[in-house]
Structure formats: C-alpha cells, structure tokens
Specification:
Number of domains: 1
CATH superfamily: Pyruvate-ferredoxin oxidoreductase, PFOR, domain III
Number of helices: 7
Distance between the termini: 53 Å
Helix content: 25-40%
Radius of gyration: 16 Å
Largest sheet: 6 strands, mixed
CATH topology: Pyruvate-ferredoxin Oxidoreductase, domain 3
Structural class: alpha/beta
Length: 200
C-alpha cells in the first residue's frame, strides 16, 4: 500500500552551491556545511569540482539538503548560490531556480544578472577577523541565516574538527560576524528584472 502520510506536505530539497576560485576554501566550506547538516538531522548529498590550477581556477561545492532521502546527488536547480568572485557569479547563474537567491561578496562581485541578490562583505569580514582565508567561513555564516536548519553550533562543532586548532578562533569570528550582518537579508534584497543587470 502506498504511504500517503504527509503527502500534502511533500518535503522539498534545498540546493546550495558555493562558488569561487582556488585558494578561497570553497571545497572545505562545502564539506563543513554538509557535515553540520548531518548533525542537524538532514539528509545530505555533497559534491565538488575544481580546475587544475592550485589558485585562481574555478572551484565549486554543492550541498543538497533534505529531510527525506535524496535520489540524485547533483543540483538540478539552485535555491542558493554563494559567489565569491565575479566569474563564479556570471558562470553559475544559469543553474538557478527562478526564485532562487544569489549571495555575493560586496568587494569581489560588482554585478549580477539576477532578481534576488544580496551583497555582503565576506572578504572584509575575514580580514578583520585576522585572516582573509576565512572568507569561506564567513560565507557559511550567511548560508546558516538563509537556511537556519543548519545551526551555528553545528557549524562551529565541525569547524573545530576540520580546522587547525590555531585557526578555529579566527574562523569562528568570521562566521559569527557574517551571521550578525546577514540578519538583515530581507532589507538588503532588491528585486529587479532578471533581464536587467544588477549593479551592486
């Protein structure tokens, strides 16, 4: 017999892609996000791709989150794109769902051809925390605001396991500052025609 329980409230997958360049810690951010989501009871599929260059090449991490089993491990339509370079923003918009949200670094991304765009100073947050390489953890702070089913405490727990001990405090500072600044997402989001260029 077919199980019709909660059939009217069928669960919806949430598909996230973090994109940037080699050296920004994109892959690590995806791994930490995925492991934190597991701690919060989510079903998770995580994948990554990167160019042959050690630094400067394209780098992406995808994390698919759901409260039911995931049938296909790759994103079919992004709910959230976090872009940490202009090239990453331009290249990945083609995979967005029509109502998806794009979050970009305010210093490194100056334009986005999309309707829902939020600009936050991830690189500046990381530098103020003490290490520009913490830009990836600042990005996770924004993601935790948009998708609160992954908690700050779970992210912090995984960070403590994955990062060198002497880097944990700096990265937590970047995470927390981004969480704080991202609380006004709704105010910062500016709806514009998707056909138009959104100058940030």
């Amino acid at each position: 017999m077919k199980n019709t329980r909660n059939s009217s409230n069928k669960s919806k997958q949430y598909e996230i892609r973090i994109a940037g360049s080699g050296g920004q810690g994109i892959i690590l951010a995806g791994i930490i996000l995925a492991e934190a989501a597991v701690l919060n009871g989510r079903y998770v599929a995580q994948s990554q791709s990167y160019g042959p260059e050690a630094r400067g090449g394209k780098s992406t991490a995808e994390v698919i989150l759901s409260d039911t089993e995931i049938d296909y491990p790759r994103a079919l339509g992004l709910d959230l794109l976090v872009a940490l370079t202009q090239e990453a923003c331009d290249w990945n918009l083609r995979d967005m769902k029509p109502d998806g949200l794009v979050v970009v670094d305010s210093e490194l991304v100056k334009r986005a051809h999309w309707g829902k765009v939020v600009s936050l100073p991830f690189w500046q947050i990381a530098r103020r925390a003490g290490d520009g390489r913490a830009i990836n953890m600042a990005a996770l702070g924004a993601i935790a605001t948009v998708y609160p089913e992954v908690s700050r405490d779970s992210l912090a727990e995984v960070m403590a396991k994955r990062l060198p001990p002497d880097k944990v405090a700096i990265n937590l500072t970047a995470l927390d500052e981004a969480l704080k600044q991202a609380r006004d997402f709704e105010v910062r989001t500016r709806p514009v025609d998707i056909k138009d260029e959104f100058e940030i």
